[in-house]
Amino acid sequence: MTDRKNILLVEDDKNLAFVVKDNLLDRGYNVYHAEDGEQALAEFKEKQVDLILLDVMLPKLDGFAVAETIREMDGQTPIIFLTAKDFKEDKIKGFRLGADDYVTKPFVLEELLLRIEAIIRRTNAVEETQDEKISIGKFVFEPASLTLQMGSEISTMTKKEAALLAELVKNKDKVVERSQLLKKVWGKDGYFVGRSMDVYMTKVRKYLKDDPNLEIINIHGVGFKLVENE
Predict the structure, then answer these.
(1) Taking the CA of residue 174 as centre, how many other CA atoms within 13 Å lie in the half-sphere pointing to its CB?
(2) Where in the chain is the domain with CATH 1.10.10.10?
(3) Within the chain, which residue ranges are assigned CATH 3.40.50.2300?
(4) Which of 102, 110, 96 is nearest to 54 (CA)?
(5) Domain 6-127: assigned CATH number
(6) Do residues 71 and 175 make contact, with C-beta atoms less than 8 angstroms apart?
(7) Is the dihedral of CA 208, 194, 185, 81 positive or negative?
(8) How far apart (Å, rounded) are the C-alpha atoms in residues 30 and 71?
């Protein structure tokens, strides 16, 4: 790996942390380790982090509280939750907080490493998008800089929000299937990431609300369509 990525590993189980960190180092990543929620936030504020592996059950602050605080500061950095629980409600909560993936313990280490690599590849692909300006109704959308501008008002989107809008714009007036959006933005299709996408789609609609002619139509059970009404 020529461009070494920095991973923040937040795990209070010292044995598991040692094994995960050792394998990440072997794969060419830089690894910062935090053993509790407060230390995790301190490390995140001080270091340049490309991805976070975040245990849910942590001392001082649990993983959900840590993720919520991080998302208030940063909507971009990918988060993978690590948890011993496999509850549907926890997974939905994690994805609503902006998680990119969710791995249940005990996990196969190779699978975790592959998921990390897949997320970093998608993140890099978004960052390498050509710097182009796209007119959408009254807006000017720049996917590479994650900005949406109307007049002098500029909104900065997260990478997932921008990626969703870019896919809808590319297929304007056409139905984009849910599975296509999920695979493009999240890298996989599934119930939990589908719930997460619905949350992000609501946010994208809010960005566009100042232009009443723009509408994202939900084709129930199929997908979404961006239309510009006359």
Answers:
(1) 10
(2) 134-228
(3) 6-127
(4) 102
(5) 3.40.50.2300
(6) no
(7) positive
(8) 22
How far apart CA 15 and CA 12 sit, in angstroms, is 9
SS3 at position 77: coil
Other Cβ atoms less than 10 A from the Cβ of 111: the count is 10
**What pLDDT digit, counting tens, does each position of 4-22 carry?**
899 999 999 999 999 999 9
How many whole angstroms separate alpha carbon 101 and alpha carbon 186? 8
Summarize pLDDT for 33-42 with one digit per residue, the tens.
999 999 999 9
Residues of the chain short of pLDDT 50, as ranges, are 1-2, 130
| pLDDT confidence of residue 1 | 45
- Which helix (H) or strand (E) is 54 found in, with range? strand 51-55
pLDDT at position 128, please?
A: 55
Give the global pTM: 0.65
Classify domain 134-228 at the CATH topology level: Arc Repressor Mutant, subunit A (1.10.10)
Q: What is the pLDDT of residue 98?
A: 82
Are residues 24 and 9 in contact, defined by beta-carbon separation less than 8 angstroms? yes
Identify the H or E element spanning 49: none
Residue 190 token pair = 């599934």
Q: H or E element: which one contains 41?
A: helix 37-46
How crowded is the C-beta side of 2, counted as CA atoms within 13 Å?
A: 0
Q: DSSP code of 133?
A: -
